[in-house]
UniProtKB/TrEMBL annotation, chain A:
Function: May play an important role in the apoptotic process, possibly within the modified cytoskeleton. Its expression is a relatively late event in the apoptotic process, occurring downstream of caspase activity. Plays a crucial role in IFN-gamma-induced autophagic cell death by interacting with FADD.
KW Metal-binding (keyword) present: no
Subunit note: Forms a conjugate with ATG12. Part of the minor complex composed of 4 sets of ATG12-ATG5 and ATG16L1 (400 kDa); this complex interacts with ATG3 leading to disruption of ATG7 interaction and promotion of ATG8-like proteins lipidation. Forms an 800-kDa complex composed of ATG12-ATG5 and ATG16L2. The ATG12-ATG5 conjugate interacts with RAB33A; this interaction is bridged by ATG16L1 and promotes ATG12-ATG5-ATG16L1 complex recruitment to phagophores. Interacts with TECPR1; the interaction is direct and does not take place when ATG16L1 is associated with the ATG5-ATG12 conjugate.
Organism lineage string: Eukaryota, Metazoa, Chordata, Craniata, Vertebrata
Main location: cytoplasm
Keywords: Acetylation, Apoptosis, Autophagy, Cytoplasm, Immunity, Isopeptide bond, Membrane, Ubl conjugation
Name of the protein in question: Autophagy protein 5
Annotated compartments: Cytoplasm; Preautophagosomal structure membrane
Topology of the protein relative to the lipid bilayer: Peripheral membrane protein
Organism: Cyprinus carpio carpio
Family that this chain belongs to: Belongs to the ATG5 family.
One of the record's GO molecular function terms: Atg8-family ligase activity
From TrEMBL, chain B:
Extent of Basic and acidic residues compositional bias: 453-465, 474-486
UniProt entry keywords in alphabetical sequence: Autophagy, Cytoplasmic vesicle, Lipid-binding, Lysosome, Membrane, Repeat
Protein name, as recorded: Tectonin beta-propeller repeat-containing protein 1
Molecular-function annotations in GO: lipid binding
InterPro entries tied to this protein: Beta-propeller_rpt_TECPR, Peroxin/Ferlin, PH_domain, TECPR1-like_DysF, Tectonin_beta-prop
Domain (Peroxin/Ferlin) ranges: 64-125, 137-170, 836-897, 908-941
Organism of origin: Cyprinus carpio carpio
Length: 275, 1194
């Protein structure tokens, strides 16, 4: 019998094999070899691609280099979404490794945020955590933490230290037993078929009548199309961390175990493969 | 913690019980009776009914109350008839007791009351002092009275044999009337009753003091109540200097009574030899002019209520000063008050007649903090079906005897009505028979109750008004209601449920009628129920107004165990709490949650995902490089070389990623030697075990590697505080597990062991561990700690693991890991529970005789300390003796221990010619010294992956060992209760390791050890040291059919047994290990014992017949250790005895079980190097004094 703790490890240590190739639009001094890397699903692209940058800079002239950005099959990849979300949203059901194109020019200002340094990522990450705790505990837990505790969460993610991160994150996952869950579940629903960045609403883990609410209940309210009748062919896949949890999975459990380090449950809804 | 019951009587005389785990009062339905008073203890409840008779309710136990009657048949030899029953005139009776003085023919034995039954007929006892006798059970002697032997000699002129017969108490879980034998004192019916005194003495078992007060103010004491005589024998009058109206008796020696005038009487001289006490002392009422009306006593407290309903607490009460020193007025207005276990206080409020619980009563603050009202609904306010189901769960009250006589007609109509009302959704259960029988309430002499009964009649008339608001719209939808009821959100507070529920409560026929006439399907039932409704009307309708909370008359907490960590769900039945707890109940009902499909699916998909996305890409570079991480601290280190001492050191753990991605680390110890800075280091992946060694002076732990295990010389370190030590231990433990790739719960094959401190360790075996001829040396085994505290642990390869605590509590492993000081990620979350353990600390009071003053505490200069430990070498006074470690806290005061081997006199003294010597219980002329043992209980509270298996305390346990690919469904599990009863657990499977219930296996004598082998061969050791084999045990017949007596090895008393696949090993009291020869499938008892080794403390034989022991005096290269895990080498199918020993972790180990390890190594045929060694090589031992070998201590 596996323990729920194992899920946390599996989530944390999820890796996506990626093959980075330099965009043919870039001018190089000599041919750039592709670069292969195992990317942590829970981290951010710009946080873990220092090596990629170094690799390609070797074949490029300094004057040709602007801010690095990534693209997959024509879609610029938003660094401020966790890597796993980007992969699930754009590249699930494709062959591995994930072919990511690297650009150093023509930054798509309309699609992407700039990321000048790791402190930008840190600020984004911490603001997500704070937002999540505002939903979960009216910010009480995160405000009770000290500066160094916040730092520990960030350092844990940055250095891929599971123990270090969870020693602190544990506190963010607590809730009074008599309430049966968080105040609201921090979640975001992403879809490829819409221009909306994501769906986010207030959603409680327990119904006013005291029922435990499930992933299915959440989708019913926010994305009914994802739930298909029994005889219907499946139109959408509901992905969290590359898996499709059953709709009867309690949303509170998902929030505790399948949230990203930013404490949000990132749900990708993608069209079902038509095979 | 097992649940226990609070008992209460409402103003209509109905008895209810409330479980500490429950959330509603369960009605003890009784057809005939209303009760005035109840007084509960854990095993039973005494009461006075409104017919003034005394009734007893004994809780059913899985171990029956049985009593052995015995008598002796005596014969004398004469030349004509040989042995015959013709005795000499001067001889004893032909049938007599053991002394021969009392005439006891078989036919003279009568059952003490109609509540007893004979188990079987008389039979001959063929066991004589642990040895089987020849056929017939005769023992021989030269003459009466003499020493008997089992062999007939030339000069044996007389012989005798023992006949035994068991009787069994059958009236359990029902109220039985205690016949009032004192006709001459009638009419003087009983008016109050109180039960207590169980802490005064343990001999005889279950001894209770029961006091009663009659209407005329006389006090009576019930004699001879104990476990074997639950009803007691006779009432004895205790003279009182006045008219008593109420009495209270605590668990200890406190007995207080209230006089009619309002003063109090305190009983003095209550003790072990005199439960009744000797004299009364008067204590004045707390407020002059206002008399006391009620008193309640506990172990160290007295509470009283005066006529003006004020509550008073008596200061300074203890067993040396039963009168206490003064009164303190408390808040609250109460009509009665009761003190339960651990001096917890219950009361009934004056205004609202609600039951109150005194919150915050602890040993240090006996007066508590505040009154809290117990507000839970009663079962009759809920649906009948739910009530009966839950009453079955919670120790339940269902009735035999009288209730079954219920009239057929009313039962039928009742059942019909039930079916109708339930709309086919609730199948009427057999419990319908529990519904009360129609009756007219008796007018009782208890004015209080009759006053309230008349109140009730007022309510009945009010009842004719149609039910208020909420119930009306719902009446038409009984089915819907039922559905709603099933949903947790609908659990209602009593006030609400009063209005909503009655429509479908079958207990409540008046309201049922309301429903039936208005409800859709009512017509059919109407006629049949009308007649009974008429009779039910007075007695059975719910007597409460729609919004009226229940009114209570009496409460008794003497059987109700509430401790600081007990979670009670009694206090707030507002919708939200009820909702939450019902949600908990719901989530419980779907546990084990691990088996939920969604969870399983997530686990499966995640591992599938990891495989898909990572398996073929492991050669890719990791995006984030792992860096080195260091934790530092200061500590003290026990220097390895002489002179050994604690030296201050810097301590550092450096962690980094190993070559294959798993974490690894190095420990550094920086010290100064001769002003030079030096360091030691140790690789984390070489550490085999971390052992906490808490003692009262230092927070230390020991680190072993395989090499240090061989040396018997661990690295010992001490942290500044306990917290720091636990932090380091948890960190190091995680680090060690990471470096070995061990995570999550222990496997089913795991080897479990326990140290003499009760710490639990587990090791994951590899296939090579039992490889032959070259197994992994057991010094290299890696052990990790699991939270909890146990003395014995047993497992099998299906993952069923049970343990027994020092207080004999049985625990089952929940499948989790961590707990204790393992926090966060080193511990599982959903299956960690609070675990407590209690043990006694003993010290000795020593005295020497001198001709002038007799025995005094002035010894000779050469004598031992006058207060010492058992050996006399260490001074241990009452004041300076501390609990074994900071984890333990005292929970009792020092008391004289009379249960010392060898017996004591009435004051607990044992006598001897000199120190140290063998002590005996009676003083002789040759004795010049004496000692007595004092005991004090201490308690530990920790957490671990263990769940209590109530209620029977155990002393040994064994679980069927299974083969590697076994598919056993029902796992045989046998146990021995702490009283020596043999028990067989039913319903144990790998999914339900806790099983369901105990089956008692009858024996003639108490047992102490038991073991079951792979093919259900059950062996057991009796307390007298003899061995028994249980015949015909199989999966189909889990309890077997009879015992075969196996003679012990000559002159030895056996202590413990372990049976593997085929091998049977025993250990005797002198530490010898014996192997049973000649065991074959057709002759499973075997033929003889063969000596294997000495210095063995315990043995565990596994499913591969592997033999592991705990051995003493194992010599290492630096030191020697007691309590060492050793494994027998060279055990092969054809050589089950093996040839030599392999030494593992120690010392200070107390128990090991290898019965889960069924992992067979592939057999390689190779000539064994040790083949030519002698067949039996004793344990390599030594008698040198040990120094560092036993850091854990023994």
């Amino acid at each position: 019998m596996a323990d729920d703790k194992d899920v946390l490890r599996d989530v944390w240590f999820g890796r996506i094999p990626a093959c980075f190739t330099l965009s043919p639009e870039e001018t190089t001094e000599r041919e750039a070899e592709p670069y292969y890397l195992l990317l942590p699903r829970v981290s951010y692209l710009t946080l873990v691609t220092d090596k990629v940058k170094k690799h390609f800079l070797r074949v490029m002239k300094t004057e040709d280099v602007e801010e690095m950005w990534f693209e997959y099959e024509g879609t610029p990849l938003k660094w401020h979404y966790p890597i796993g979300v980007l992969f699930d949203l754009h590249a699930s059901n494709t062959a591995l490794p994930w072919n990511v194109t690297v650009h150093f020019k023509n930054f798509p200002e309309r699609d992407l945020l700039h990321c000048s340094s790791n402190s930008v990522i840190e600020a984004h990450f911490m603001s997500c955590i704070k937002e999540a705790d505002a939903l979960k505990h009216k910010s009480q837990v995160i405000n009770d933490m000290q500066k160094k505790d916040h730092k520990q969460l960030w350092m844990g993610l940055q250095n891929d230290k599971f123990d270090q991160f969870w020693a602190m994150n544990r506190k963010l996952m607590e809730y009074p037993t008599e309430e049966g869950g968080f105040r609201y579940i921090p979640f975001r629903i992403y879809q490829t078929t819409s221009d909306r960045p994501f769906i986010q609403k207030l959603f409680r883990p327990v119904s006013p009548e005291g029922h435990t609410l499930t992933l299915g209940d959440l989708l019913k309210e926010l994305f009914p199309a994802a739930i298909c009748a029994e005889d219907e062919p499946k139109r959408f896949q509901v992905m969290i961390h590359g898996i499709e949890p059953l709709l009867e999975t309690p949303i509170q459990w998902l929030s505790e175990h399948l949230s990203h380090p930013d404490n949000f449950l990132h749900i990708s809804i993608i069209p079902a493969p038509s095979d | 913690m097992p649940s226990s019951l609070l008992w209460a009587v409402d103003v209509y005389g109905r008895v209810y019980s409330l479980s500490t785990a429950g959330q509603q009062w369960e009605h003890c339905r009784d057809a005939h009776l209303e009760f005035k008073r109840v007084t509960a203890v854990q095993q039973c409840c005494w009461s006075i009914a409104c017919d003034h008779n005394i009734y007893l309710y004994v809780h059913a136990s899985e171990v029956p109350i049985r009593y052995q009657e015995e008598t002796y048949e005596n014969q004398r030899w004469n030349p004509v008839d040989g042995f015959s029953d013709r005795l000499l005139p001067s001889d004893r009776w032909q049938w007599s007791d053991i002394t021969g003085l009392k005439h006891q023919p078989l036919g003279d034995f009568q059952l003490p009351s109609e509540n007893w039954e004979w188990e079987a007929d008389w039979y001959i006892d063929e066991n004589f002092g642990g040895e089987p006798t020849e056929k017939g059970g005769w023992t021989y002697a030269i003459d009466f009275p003499a020493t008997y032997t089992k062999d007939k000699k030339w000069n044996s002129c007389v012989r005798r044999r023992r006949w035994i017969r068991y009787r069994r108490y059958k009236a359990q879980d029902t109220w039985v009337k205690i016949p009032s034998e004192q006709t001459e004192s009638l009419p003087d019916p009983f008016n109050d009753i109180t039960c207590g005194g169980w802490e005064i003495t343990e001999e005889p078992r279950g001894c209770l003091a029961l006091w009663a007060v009659s209407l005329q103010g006389k006090v009576w004491f019930r004699c001879d109540i104990n476990h074997h005589n639950p009803e007691g024998s006779v009432w004895e009058e205790v003279p009182v200097p006045g008219e008593v109206v109420q009495i209270s008796c605590g668990p200890g020696d406190l007995v207080w009574a209230v006089l009619w005038e309002g003063h109090l009487l305190v009983r003095e001289g209550v003790g072990r030899d005199c439960l009744k006490g000797s004299s009364w002392v008067t204590v004045e009422s707390p407020s002059p002019g206002v008399g006391v009306v009620h008193v309640a006593v506990g172990v160290n407290v007295v509470w009283a209520v005066t006529k003006d309903h004020k509550v008073w607490f008596r200061r300074g009460v203890n067993s040396h000063n039963p009168c206490g020193s003064g009164w303190i007025g408390m808040v609250g207005e109460m009509v009665m008050i009761n003190v339960g276990l651990s001096d917890q206080v219950w009361a009934i409020g004056f205004e609202d007649r609600a039951v109150y619980f005194r919150q915050g009563v602890t040993a240090s603050e006996l007066s508590g903090k505040a009154w809290k009202v117990v507000s839970v609904p009663r079962d009759s306010e809920r649906s009948h079906s739910s009530a009966s189901a839950s009453s079955l769960q919670s120790a339940g009250c269902f009735f035999g005897g009288e209730v079954r006589l219920q009239s057929q007609a009313s039962m039928l109509s009742d059942a019909d009505a039930e079916t109708e009302r339930a709309g086919g959704e609730v199948v009427p259960t057999p419990e319908i028979g529990d519904a009360p029988k129609p009756r007219i309430p008796k007018v009782t002499s208890d004015s209080f109750i009759s006053e309230l009964v008349s109140d009730r009649e007022g309510q009945i008339s009010r009842r004719d008004v149609p039910p208020a608001g909420p119930s009306i719209p719902e009446e038409d939808h009984p089915e819907k209601e039922l559905e709603d009821r099933a949903s947790p959100a609908q659990v209602l507070s009593p006030s609400q449920s009063g209005g909503v529920d009655p429509q479908w409560s079958n207990v409540d026929l008046e309201e049922a009628q309301t429903h039936l006439t208005s409800g859709p399907g009512g017509d059919a039932a109407e006629t049949s129920s009308l007649s009974s409704v008429a009779t039910y009307n007075l007695a059975l309708e719910e007597p409460y107004g729609l919004d009226e909370p229940p009114k209570w008359a009496w409460v008794s907490g003497g059987g109700c165990l509430v401790e600081c960590h007990t979670q009670l769900n009694w206090f707030n039945s507002s919708t939200s709490t009820a909702l939450n707890s019902s949600m908990q109940a719901m989530s419980l009902s779907i546990t084990p949650a691990q088996t939920a499909a969604w969870r399983k699916q997530i686990f499966e998909q995640l591992s599938e995902r990891s495989k898909r996305e990572m398996e073929n890409f492991m050669h890719y570079e990791q995006a984030i490089e792992q860096s080195v991480w260091v934790k530092k601290g200061t500590m003290q280190w026990w220097r390895d070389w002489k002179p050994h001492k604690w030296v201050d050191v810097q301590f550092a753990l450096e962690q980094f990623s190993g070559v294959e991605g798993n974490k690894d680390g190095i420990l550094f110890i920086y010290y100064t030697f001769n002003d030079e800075k030096k360091y030691l280091h140790m690789f984390i992946n070489e550490v085999t075990i971390l052992v906490p060694v808490l003692n009262d002076s230092k927070h230390t732990f020991a680190i072993y590697t395989a090499e240090r295990t061989k040396q018997r010389w661990p690295m010992r370190l001490a942290a500044a505080t306990e917290l720091e030590m636990h932090d380091w231990l948890a960190l190091l433990s995680v680090s060690c597990c990471d470096s070995r790739g061990i995570q999550g719960p222990p496997s089913k094959q795991a080897i479990w062991s326990v140290t003499c401190k009760g710490d639990i360790f587990v090791s994951e075996p590899t296939k090579e561990l039992e490889a032959s001829p070259y197994p992994t040396p057991c010094a290299q085994m890696f052990w990790r700690q699991v939270g909890g505290h146990l003395r014995i642990i047993e497992s099998n390869s299906l993952g069923v693991v049970w343990g027994i605590g020092y207080d004999h509590t049985a625990w089952v492993h929940t499948g989790g890991y961590g707990g204790g000081f393992f926090q966060g990620l080193a511990s599982s979350t959903d299956n960690i529970y609070t675990q407590t353990d209690v043990k006694s600390v003993y010290i000795y009071e020593n005295q020497r005789w001198n001709p002038v003053t007799g025995y005094t505490n002035r010894g000779l200069p050469t004598d031992r300390y006058m207060w010492s430990n058992a050996s006399g070498l260490k001074e241990c006074t009452k004041n300076n003796t501390k609990p074994p470690s900071p984890n333990w806290t005292w929970v009792s005061d020092w008391t004289i221990d009379y249960a010392v081997p060898g017996g004591t006199d009435r004051e607990g003294w044992q006598y001897a010619a000199d120190f140290p010597a063998s002590y005996h219980g009676n003083k002789t002329l040759k004795d010049f010294v004496r000692r007595r043992r004092w005991a004090r209980k201490c308690k530990l509270t920790t957490t671990g992956p263990w769940q209590e298996v109530p209620p029977i305390p155990l002393s040994d346990i064994t679980i069927l060992p299974c083969g590697p690919k076994s598919t056993v469904e029902q796992v045989s599990l046998w146990a021995i209760s702490n009283k020596g009863d043999i028990l067989c657990r039913l319903g144990v499977t790998s999914l339900t390791p806790g099983g369901s219930s105990w089956l008692h296996v009858g024996t003639d004598q108490p047992f102490k050890s038991i073991s079951i082998g792979a093919v259900h061969q059950v062996w057991a050791i009796a307390k007298d040291g003899s061995a028994f084999y249980r015949g015909s045990v199989s999966a189909q017949n889990p309890a077997g059919d009879c015992w075969y007596h196996i003679p012990s090895p000559t002159g030895q008393k056996l202590k413990q047994v372990s049976v593997g696949r085929t091998s049977v090993y025993t250990v005797d009291e002198n530490g010898n290990l014996w192997y049973r020869h000649g065991v074959t499938p057709s002759y499973p008892q075997g033929s003889s014992w063969e000596h294997i080794s000495n210095n063995v403390r315990k043995v565990s034989v596994g499913p591969l017949d592997q033999v592991w022991v705990i051995a003493d005096k194992v010599q290492g290269s630096h030191s020697l250790s007691c309590g060492t895990v050793c494994r027998r080498l060279g055990v092969l199918p054809m050589e089950p005895k093996g040839h030599s020993w392999d030494y593992g972790i120690g010392g200070g180990w107390d128990h090991i079980t290898v019965r889960g390890n069924a992992m067979e190594a592939p057999r390689i045929v190779m000539p064994s190097l040790t083949d030519n060694q002698t067949a039996t090589r004793p344990l390599q031992t030594s008698n040198q004094p040990e120094m560092n070998g036993n850091p854990v201590g023994c």
